From TrEMBL:
Gene3D superfamilies: ACP-like (1.10.1200.10). Signal peptide: none annotated. Residues 1-20 are annotated as: Disordered. SUPFAM superfamilies: ACP-like. This is Carrier domain-containing protein. Residues 14-95 form the Carrier domain.
Length: 95
């Protein structure tokens, strides 16, 4: 998992605790629940497919990374963060 924006213009790995903090804060705002923690399950706190897509867009924009849907739905949020993957650059296709 990588994040751009180091002082030298290079790429640095994202800090999992920073990703988790951002994810939890985003979910608290989105789901209007200040009690959400990293130990919560995404579905149990009211997450669904649209929330997941919006969350992954936030993580992509902030960290260049995305969560795996199956892991996020089945495991606590803090476990899902440990399995985050870099977002691949989209390549335009031609027909």
């Amino acid at each position: 998992m990588q994040v751009s924006g180091t002082d030298d213009g290079g790429i640095r790995p994202a800090d999992p605790s920073e990703v988790e903090r951002s994810l939890v804060e985003w979910l608290r705002d989105e789901l209007e629940d200040p009690d959400i923690t990293g130990g919560d399950n995404f579905l149990d706190i009211g997450g669904h497919s649209l929330t997941f897509a919006k969350l992954n867009q936030h993580l992509s924009d902030s960290f260049g990374a995305a969560l795996d849907m199956k892991t996020t739905y089945e495991e606590p949020l803090d476990v899902a963060v440990t399995r985050i993957k870099p977002v691949e650059s989209a390549t335009p296709t031609t027909r």
